[in-house]
């Protein structure tokens, strides 16, 4: 996965989480699954950025 693809996924996840945060009728299960998705994407971002750092060295 390229850095640009990762940035796109992170931006999309941020937009989804913001819309869920602003929805007063959000279902708890939907919120939980969205937070889990954000957790997974964040972990992936860390892995990719660490890999990029290693390549730069």
Automatic annotation (TrEMBL):
The lineage of its organism: Bacteria, Bacillati, Bacillota, Bacilli, Lactobacillales. It comes from the Bacteria. This is Uncharacterized protein.
